[in-house]
Design brief:
The chain has about 450 residues and is mainly α. The chain has helices at about 15-35, 40-45, 55-60, 70, 75-85, 90-100, 105-120, 125-135, 150-175, 180-190, 195-205, 210-225, 235-245, 250-255, 260-270, 275-285, 295-300, 310-315, 325-335, 340-345, 355-365, 370-385, 390-400, 405-415, 425-430, 435-445.
Length: about 450
């Protein structure tokens, strides 16, 4: 009996089994969060008594996307997790602190700006101020632009005037700095009814820092005009392929017609100079070689060299070609390859029923995010060219490992096209980190 006369309540320790269950739930949640799948949201929503706030903070402070530049931020994804957390204020404070202090990762900083913007759009004035305070304050080298988009989304022309003045102050301190007109141009594109330059020129009449900014942009434009190189001239397509620096532009490669490809192919067959073979072969990593596929296979079978990329380009070119010998070449090398996507790509034109088993085994074998990413790209190409329900297992295996929202979106599209999307994934994609995948969920509701 307690001295007060009340019975003493002894708090029993949590049973080990329940503690293990909670630990597993948290581990599963964090694994999903890092990958960016909607499973994290469903786990948090179904377990309101479990505190996931420390993991959400990790996802707020770091953009876990495989390629933050291409995928952009995952702010909406994290914000949705914050919205169902019982520790919103704790996470919010961590976001503001991260926004103030992040100095290493540009794409995590853009992610933090975007998160703060979402708070601000709900009337959080402290979040709005945090965005303004951080913009151009101790910027990451090469990333002085970070934060401008959020300011424009929040405050439009008023925000642009603030940005212009802030840049003008930076330029005043460092006259050698240069800025282009990309921020103004993007705002003009989004707001065609506003005569943006005219508005800035008006303000510049009484604001010296905006005048400095606009003059700097003009100076940069004139400098680029002077340094613009003259286009190269070539005698014919062979001359262009061999002597373009460094290679044909992507646009030019896409434009090559059948006659040009035939000329390049004929020259490749006869060519003996390795440096020229390398450049001619490069064309056929984008187009189907128009003659005997054995020509390319022979190059692919040659030993790789540190002095040229003939072997690499030849193997890459095989994805457009089909033959029994090419398929055998691919299968011989896939299982033991350190970078298997190099050879799984060949199955784009050489897939046969049952190959999904090999592809699934390969997907299970690797954990490295770069290899998983390359396999996702390869498998997307394979099953786009070869529509089959066999895509289900290998694509689901990759779905459970990858942290690239863009390629995950592609895998899900293929699963939908082949009518093999599971109910579990169908539910998860409603909350995926990649917003285009959420659109897929709306467009492909189960009937």
């Amino acid at each position: 009996m307690h001295p007060s006369g009340c019975k003493r309540t002894i708090q029993e320790p949590l049973p080990a089994i329940r503690m293990n269950e909670t630990t597993n739930i948290k581990r599963q949640f964090y694994d999903s969060l890092k990958r960016g799948t909607g499973e994290a949201y469903l786990i948090a929503n179904n377990n309101p008594s479990v505190d996931f706030s420390n993991y959400i903070i990790k996802g707020a402070l770091k953009n876990f996307a495989y390629d933050g530049q291409s995928e952009d931020s995952r702010a909406r994804y994290i914000f949705d997790l914050i919205s169902i957390s019982n520790n919103k204020e704790k996470i919010r404070n961590a976001v503001f602190e991260g926004l103030e202090t992040e100095q290493d990762d540009t794409w995590s900083l853009t992610h933090l700006f975007d998160l703060a913007k979402l708070f601000a759009q709900q009337g959080d004035n402290e979040a709005r101020q945090a965005i303004y305070d951080r913009f151009l304050n101790s910027p990451i080298e090469g990333s002085v632009w970070v934060g401008y988009k959020e300011i424009l989304e929040l405050d439009g022309l008023k925000g642009l005037i603030y940005i212009a003045e802030k840049f003008g102050k930076v330029i005043e301190q460092d006259p050698e700095d240069w800025q282009d007109n990309s921020i103004i141009r993007h705002f003009q594109d989004d707001n065609p009814k506003i005569k943006v330059y005219r508005e800035l020129e008006k303000v510049a009449e009484s604001n010296k820092h905006i005048r400095i900014y606009l003059d700097n942009i003009e100076r940069t434009k004139n400098s680029w005009k002077k340094s613009k190189t003259k286009p190269q001239k070539f005698n014919d397509i062979i001359d262009e392929v061999i002597y373009s620096k460094p290679f044909l532009s992507f646009k030019r490669r896409k434009e090559l017609n059948e006659a040009e490809l035939s000329e390049i192919g004929k020259k490749l067959i006869k060519e003996k100079d390795k440096s020229k073979i390398e450049k001619l072969l490069y064309v056929f990593t984008y187009h189907k070689f128009p003659f005997d596929a054995g020509v390319i296979l022979n190059f692919a079978k040659k030993r790789a060299s540190s002095t040229d990329r003939i072997n690499e380009y030849a193997i890459d070119s095989l994805k457009f070609l089909n033959s029994k010998s090419i398929r055998e070449f691919a299968l011989e090398r896939i299982s033991n390859a350190r970078r298997p996507a190099t050879f799984t790509d060949i199955l784009v034109s050489n897939y046969q029923s049952g190959d999904y088993k090999l592809l699934n085994d390969i997907a299970k074998k690797f954990k490295d995010e770069h290899i998983i990413e390359s396999l996702a790209s390869s498998y997307s190409d394979i099953f786009t060219s070869n529509k089959t329900v066999e895509c289900k297992e290998p694509l689901e295996t990759l779905y459970g490992k990858m942290n690239c929202g863009i390629h995950r979106n592609g895998l899900i599209e293929i699963l939908i096209e082949n009518n093999v999307l599971t109910d579990k994934i169908r539910e998860e994609i409603k909350y995926d980190s990649y917003l285009e995948t959420r659109v897929l969920a709306k467009e492909n509701k189960k009937k």
